[in-house]
């Protein structure tokens, strides 16, 4: 199959991580374009999409009042940032877990406590994983949780939450409240509510991100696919991972502005010369961090 594939474009954080691993070890079989790290994907789909779909999924699944609840968001990357914003906006008292000191400092400067799950798992009402890693919320955490604590994942596969470990506990009872909402009753009588069986709750318990923010991601995908096809015989792309250039990122953003009624300020030639850019863009260097 590989010999017939011109290239691939990938828009998930986890998928891109795997592509870079393959490129490093020489197992990547064709060129790949990393769409996830386009600004108009990761800073929009990941942040604003999750900011919308996390509370949507929680409320459709449980009808719980979020205001006043103690919520922990595991991971403060782009997905975690959107999730924390949503919970804070709904009136929750939000804390974050992190391994990265930069992300942890960002969380603190946004007003979130940075904690470890081991320290707070017996006090929280909702915990959401958004790490892209495995073994985040373990059976030992859920054994200590308050009655009816809500556990969900929005970051990765179902291995962020140790569902198998909970099911293996002697005397555990699993009750389906409704499809995609299960309550695990522990031998001591307390229960934990698991959303979407540990899979992505915004898809399992709701309908995912709204079409507008996904349009931004899919526009990047379309541009990447066209680029790979149009350059299929040029030798431009080797068996490596590439990102779309800045001017295409800006193009994706431009294509969406009219729908929101935006009117951009124009940069004069003199102003452009003063800051060393083209008046039509791109306006930021490739290493600019939005």
Automatic annotation (TrEMBL):
Keyword Magnesium: no
Xref: PROSITE patterns: ADOHCYASE_2
Domain of life assignment: Eukaryota
Entry's family note: Belongs to the adenosylhomocysteinase family.
UniProt keyword DNA-binding, yes or no: no
One Gene Ontology cellular component: cytosol
A Pfam match: AdoHcyase
Protein name as it appears in the record: adenosylhomocysteinase
Ranges of residues in domain S-adenosyl-L-homocysteine hydrolase NAD binding: 46-208
GO molecular function: adenosylhomocysteinase activity
Named cofactor requirement(s): NAD(+)
Keyword list, A-Z: Hydrolase, NAD, One-carbon metabolism
Sections of the chain in a coiled coil: none
E.C. code: 3.13.2.1
Gene Ontology process terms (BP): one-carbon metabolic process; S-adenosylmethionine cycle
Pathway this chain belongs to: Amino-acid biosynthesis; L-homocysteine biosynthesis; L-homocysteine from S-adenosyl-L-homocysteine: step 1/1
């Amino acid at each position: 199959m590989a010999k017939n594939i011109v290239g691939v474009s990938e828009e998930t954080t986890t998928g891109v991580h795997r592509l870079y691993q393959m490129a490093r070890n020489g197992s990547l079989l064709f060129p790949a374009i990393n769409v996830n790290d386009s600004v108009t994907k990761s800073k929009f789909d990941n942040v604003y999409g999750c900011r919308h779909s996390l509370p949507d999924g929680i409320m459709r699944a449980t009808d719980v009042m979020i205001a006043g609840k103690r919520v922990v968001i595991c991971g403060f990357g782009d997905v975690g940032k959107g999730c924390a914003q949503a919970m804070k906006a709904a009136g929750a008292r939000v804390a974050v877990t992190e391994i990265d000191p930069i992300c942890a400092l960002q969380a603190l400067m946004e007003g979130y406590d940075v904690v470890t799950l081991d320290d707070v798992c017996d006090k929280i009402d909702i915990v959401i994983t958004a790490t892209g890693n495995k073994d985040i919320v373990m059976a030992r955490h859920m054994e200590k949780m308050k009655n009816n604590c809500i556990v969900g994942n929005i970051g990765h596969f179902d291995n962020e939450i140790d569902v198998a470990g909970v099911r293996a506990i002697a005397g555990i009872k699993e009750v389906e409240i409704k499809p995609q909402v299960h309550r695990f009753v522990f031998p001591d009588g307390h229960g934990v509510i698991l959303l979407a069986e540990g899979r992505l709750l915004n898809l399992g318990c709701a309908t995912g991100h709204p079409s507008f923010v996904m349009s931004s991601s899919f526009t990047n995908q379309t541009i990447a696919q066209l680029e790979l096809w149009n350059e299929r015989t040029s030798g431009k792309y080797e068996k490596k991972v590439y990102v779309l250039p800045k001017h295409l990122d800006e193009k994706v953003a431009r294509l969406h502005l009219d729908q929101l009624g935006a009117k951009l300020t124009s940069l004069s030639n003199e102003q452009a010369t003063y800051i060393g850019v083209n008046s039509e863009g791109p306006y930021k260097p490739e290493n600019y961090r939005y």
